[in-house]
Amino acid sequence: MANTEKLVEQLVTKHGVCRNSLLPVLQGVVKEEHFLSDVAMIAIAKALDLSSADVYGTASFYSFLDTEFRGENIIRICKTITCKMKGKQKIVEVLEDHLKIKEGETTRNGKFTMLAANCLGWCHKGPVMLVNDDVYPELDPEEVVEIIEKYC
Amino acid sequence: MVSKKFKRVDLIFECKGCEPISVVKKALQMTPDEVISSIIESGLRGRGGAGFPTGMKWKFAKEEKSNDKYVICNADEGEPGTFKDREILDIVPNKVLSGMAICAYAIGAKEGIIYLRGEYNFLLKPLNETIDKFNNSLSKIGLDFAVYIRSGSGAYICGEETALFESMEGMRGEPRNKPPFPTKIGYNGKPTVINNVETLVYTAMIINIGVDEFKKLGTNDSRGSKVFSVSGDTPKAGIHELELGLNVADFVKEFGDGDTKAVQVGGASGFCVPRKQFNETIIGFEGIPTGGSMMVFNSTRSMYNILNDYLEFFAEESCGQCTPCRIGTQQLIKGIAAVKKGDMPSDYLDQLMKLTDTMKIASKCGLGQSVANSFSSIVTNFREEMIY
Ligand SMILES: Cc1cc2nc3c(=O)[nH]c(=O)nc-3n(C[C@H](O)[C@H](O)[C@H](O)COP(=O)(O)O)c2cc1C
Ligand code: SF4
Predict the structure, then answer these.
(1) Tens digits of per-residue pLDDT, A5-53?
(2) What is the residue with the minimal CA distance to atom 4 of ligand 2?
(3) Under an 8 A CB cutoff, do A121 and B77 touch?
(4) Ligand nearest to the CA of B320
C-alpha cells in the first residue's frame, strides 16, 4: 500500500470512522505531507464513506488545508495592519530575496512555501511569522534568514 | 454618562486560584442552581465580542433535558488586534479549565472541548499536558467531566459559534441560522454552552472571590474587568487588564504616543473612534463593546490604508454563503479605490455606506453584519482621507 493510503488508514483508525473525524484526518495528512494530494483526498473519502468532492469541498474552505502542492516548510507571514505598521514588508522582501520566490510560491527544491496570513495573534510583537507550527515574533530583517536556515 | 477612572485589575493572571481544582471544589459545595445564580448576579457578559449574559446562557443550557451536553471553550481568537486568549491559555490554562468544569457541573455536561485556532498549534503540547493532569484531578474529586482539544485550520469565521460546530462536525465552517441557539441545538445537535476563553476564567474567579467582590468593578452595563490587547502606535503594546467603563480619552492618556489620531475599538469588526470623540466614548457595553482589540493609530497613518486592510480581511474571511457579504465586501474594496483614484465622485462613498447598511440587515452572521461598523466610522470621520 502506498504511504499516503497507509497514513490515511492510521489516522482514520485513530480518530474513528465518522464525519466528525474529517478535519483531524485532513490535518493529520497535512502535518505529514504538507498538502492534500488527490490521492490523499480520495483515500479519505473512501475511508469515511464520503464523496471525494465533499472532502475536497470541505478541505478547500480552510486556508491551512492546502489542496495545492506545498513545500516541506510553510512560512506564513502576518499581513494584518499592525504587522504592516511594524515593517512586515521588509521581512517579506528579505525572504523573497533569499529564497528566490515571491509570496505564494514554493522554492524549486520544494523546501519552502511562503504565504501571507491574516492576523496571527501577535500584534504587540509584530512583525511575526509562523514556520510550520513554530512562531517567530518581533522579527528583525537581519535575523530572519538565520531562522529560515534552521529548516534547510 | 459618567465613565469610570482608569484602573488596573489583576484577576486573570494573578496566581491566587490558579491551583487546579481548588476553585472547582468550591463550586461543588454549591448546588448547580446556586452556581448559575452567582454568575447571573455577577452581571458577567461574554468577553468574545457579543456580550451575552453568561449566567443566562448557562441557565438555558441547564434547563434542556439531554444526556449529552457540551461545554466548549472558544479559542479561535482571530479578530485582528486580539491576542489575549493565547496569553491566557499559555499562562493560566488551569483557570480556563476550572471555568469549563464549573460550567459542566452547573449545566450537567460530561464533555468539554477547547477549539484552538491552528495558528496556536505551538500551544498544543503544553496545553495537552495540563489538560491530562486536570482531567485526572477531576476524576479524583468525582466530577464526571473531561476536556480535550480540537484544532482549527485557519478560518476566522470558525470563531462564530455555529460555524465552529460545523467545523467540528467535519463541515465547511459556514454559520447556521439562529435560532435555534446553541444552548438548545449546538455541537452534534446537543445543548451546548460555548464561551470565550476569558469569560470562562472570569466565571472561575467569580466563584473564587465571590460575586460582591466582582461586582465592585465596572458599571451597571459592564460589570467587572476585561483583558485588553493593545497594539499599534503605542509604547505600551501588550496585554492589560482594566476595569470596564473607562473612556477612550483615559485609555489614550495611558497608551497613546502623544500623537494619537484614532483608536480602533474591537478590531476590524469594531468601531474607529476619532480624537474628537475620545472624551465621550465609553469602552463597554453602554458605549463601544470590544472583544479586547485596541489598535492605536497616530497621525502618520493613512486611514484609507487601514480601512482597505480591514475590508480585504473581510473579503477573504467571508464564508461566501450569503450574497450581501460575499459580494458586498468585494464591492466596498473596489468602491473606495475608485473614489480615491477619482474614477468616482466623492458622494459615491454615501452609496457605499448604504451598501453596508444593507449588509447589516441581510447578512446571516456577525461577520457580514459588522462590516458597517468600521466602514461607516472610518468613512464618516476621515472622509477627506478617503478622497484625497
Ligand atoms: C465572525 C465572528 C468571529 C468570532 N470569533 C470569535 C472568537 O474568535 N472567539 C470568541 O470567543 N468568540 C468569537 N465570536 C463570538 C462567538 O460567536 C460567540 O458569541 C462567543 O464565543 C460566545 O462566548 P462569550 O459569550 O463568552 O463571549 C465570533 C463571532 C463572529 C460573528
Ligand atoms: S455574513 Fe458572511 S461570513 Fe456570515 S454567513 Fe453570510 S457570507 Fe458567511
Answers:
(1) 999 999 999 999 999 999 999 999 999 999 999 999 999 999 999 999 9
(2) B365
(3) yes
(4) 2
Pocket test for ligand 2, best of B314, B319, B331, B359 (most atoms within 8 A of CB): B319
Cell digits of residue B27: 463550586
Residue B309 sits in a domain of what CATH number?
1.20.1440.230
Q: Are B167 and B173 in contact (CB under 8 A)?
A: yes
What chain A residue is nearest to B174 in terms of C-alpha separation?
A61
- If asked whether residues B191 and B329 sit together in one domain, one would say no
Report CA(B317)–ligand 2 centroid distance (Å): 9
Comparing CB atoms, the residue among A26, A63, A81 nearest residue B309 is A81
Q: What is the arithmetic mean of pLDDT over B37-55? A: 96
Q: CA-CA distance, B127 to B59, in Å (whole number)?
A: 29
Chain B positions touching A82 (Cβ under 8 A) are 80-81, 231-232, 295
Q: Establish if B138 belongs to a structural domain.
A: yes
Instruction: Give mean pLDDT, residues B30-47.
Output: 98
The CATH number linked to B168 is: 3.40.50.11540
Pocket test for ligand 1, best of B74, B120, B156, B369 (most atoms within 8 A of CB): B74
CA distance A21 to chain B (A): 6
Mean pLDDT of A123-149: 97
Other CB atoms within 10 Å distance of the CB of residue A101: 18
Whether residue B208 is found in the same domain as residue B311: no
Domain that holds residue B372: 303-385
Interface pTM, i.e. ipTM: 0.97
Total of domains in chain B: 2
- In angstroms, the separation between the Cα of residue B85 and the nearest Cα of chain A is 9
B370 within a domain of the structure (yes/no): yes
| Residue B88, in any domain of the structure | yes
Chain-chain contact of A82 with B151 (C-beta, under 8 angstroms) = no
pLDDT tens-digit series, residues B370-387: 999 999 999 999 999 999
User: Is any ligand 1 atom within 6 A of the Cβ of residue B124?
Assistant: no
Which cell numbers hold the place of A136?
A: 517567530
- H-run or E-run covering B295: strand B293-298
* Interface contact flag, B117 A124, Cβ < 8 Å: no
The answer to whether residues B196 and B307 belong to one domain is no
Domain boundary among B170, B199, B215: B215
Q: Indicate whether B250 belongs to any domain.
A: no
Region for B322 from its dihedrals, namely left if φ exceeds 0, alpha if ψ lies in -120 to 50, beta otherwise: beta
Q: What is the pLDDT of residue B235?
A: 98
Which domains are seen in chain A, by residue range?
3-61 (no CATH), 73-149 (3.40.30.10)
- Alpha carbon A51 to its chain's center: 24
Which residues, 6+ apart, have CB-to-CB distance to A12 below 8 Å? A21, A25, A44, A47, A48
CA dist list (Å): B370 to A128, B82, B235, B267: 27, 17, 29, 11
Residue whose CA is at the smallest distance from ligand 2 atom 1: B368
